[in-house]
């Protein structure tokens, strides 16, 4: 089973650690592409007008410290991706507190979609960076479009014959879309909050629920092979799940929660 996660916009900057080594990262076939995006990002942020770079990156014009940090990425200290990413989903997932078999499953089941690196495994050592998927970098274009042309082979290879559980947000979902032959092996999840019979999607708790759900999957260890079996497995783990029809991007499952 392959579980695709979004990155976290919130990151914890490593205080010490070896500098970035692109050759050491998982999915080595992406090394040259990573170098191209990294060079474009560093060139943008090595500027006499940091506020201009901040605007391109979708940051406030006062967030020049993030621009300066991006300019230092080639020599910045690194840490495991699962400690650098520190947003709501990753807090709820709590990868650092997993032990034994659950921790080993996280290493082989999880892949993170990254604007800078394309795909990462939790143990890959990376610096903290600012680069959202919807940014258009001079020389490479929109980040999501760049990676959408380069990730299919990598995803296919790591997914194998197993199920792909796609938990990415809309921006990062565009980095890779399954071709028709693979869509039947893909499930996407939407979290809905139900109160007095009314349902609505809520961003913050959507992320937290997905984090808790992934943790439950890793601790349980079962790897269902079809969307229907996956939905049934989530129900067995205590979740309320409604299965939608198969679509061109996979089968959507609605996870309905009443408590946030």
Automatic annotation (TrEMBL):
Q: Name one GO cellular component term.
A: cytosol
* InterPro entries cross-referenced by the UniProt entry: YaaA
- Record-linked Pfam families: H2O2_YaaD (PF03883)
Protein name per its UniProtKB record: Peroxide stress protein YaaA
Q: Which domain of life is it from?
A: Bacteria
Give the organism the record lists.
Answer: Nocardioides panacis
What biological processes does GO assign it? response to hydroperoxide
